[in-house]
Amino acid sequence: MSNKIPFRGRPAGGRHAVARPAPTRALAHPARLAQGAVVAALAVSMCAMVAVSANARDGGSAFIGAAPAPRSTAQVEQARAGAVEVASDAIVFAQSVKAEATQVAIDAAQLEALEVATAHLDEVLAVATADVDRGAATSRTADRDEVAGMEGTAGAAAEPTAAATSTPAPQTETDPATVFEQTPAAVPTVAPKTGAEDSTTAELREAVAAVATATAAVKQSAEAKKAADAAAAAASAQAAADAAAAAQAAAEAEAARRASWKQSLLGYANGKIPDSALCGVSFDSSVRLRCDAAEQLDILNAAYRAKFGTNLSISDSYRSYAGQVMCQRTKGYLCATPGTSNHGSGVAVDFGGGIETFGTKQYRWMTANAPALNWTHPSWAESGGSKPEAWHWEYTD
């Protein structure tokens, strides 16, 4: 896709008539310009477009180092018309850059400076366009008078000679958009004001220069802001990915740790687990359990204390083989056969503090909350079970 601004040329209606572009025309046109431009040379390039347009019409002497050729009224008008075209493009380009910069929220002061410069150029452009229109109307009137005078001369009925009917040689037009495609070193420097340049064209050129400078600053800031936003988004995404990976690694490590705790007791017979292989809880030094069961009981106790203001009351936890023998001797059928009790595996506790009674608020709270941490009340110990024991709870992970 070409990144040139299509050169509009002169519309019909006279030799010098120039149609000012509507402010609402599509912005894709200047966006294509930006693709071929170097931001650092934008200000110089837009100003140079005025000189390129004028230079092409005047035979090529509009730059520093060349003596300006004498200009006729028609040449001055043509230079003004070319400046109007360049100014129109500058306004549209500035509007597109401003819209882009607004989306990324750059410094408001830069946007305001561009708005002020564009508004001033718009005012000067209105005056210049009116001057161009008046010059075109004057030229058309002169053409009609000239034709009328020729028809009134002697021999008007004869066929016109080739010299009389020949049209002026077409002038070579230089597309101002091509300035944007040059490298910074090749961009020409705009010529200083000369006596042959009228005040309207000079003021228009100065206004274009101001808009070009402001546009370049805004565009550069917008590109820097977009780059910074993209870098921040990438950093945020990376941080999120790192956090997710860390969380996954922690979860896997925790699962491995808990699995190792469970595996570490499998080599011991029921009731024969050494104390060094068991863990305690923070709220009761007498409690001894398998490490993962003890960890979850600590978490359950924190929630229980937040609800009732006291710690869980525990009357029994790990029970050695000798302890199981003594329990059966004193409590009979309430205690399991020695060597088969879940207390002997370090995964059972007997609660007090209200939990030991069916239907209390403490018991109901346990049935609603303890299973989330893998502490459950076995079905045989339910009120309708084979051996109702409200106080007996087991860790089932």
Automatic annotation (TrEMBL):
Positions of the D-alanyl-D-alanine carboxypeptidase-like core domain: 288-396
Residues spanning the membrane: none
A Pfam family per the record: VanY
Classification via Gene3D superfamilies: 3.30.1380.10
Region described as Disordered: 135-176
Biased composition, class Low complexity, residue ranges: 149-174
Organism superkingdom: Bacteria
Any one GO MF annotation of this record: peptidase activity
Any one Gene Ontology BP term: proteolysis
Protein name: D-alanyl-D-alanine carboxypeptidase-like core domain-containing protein
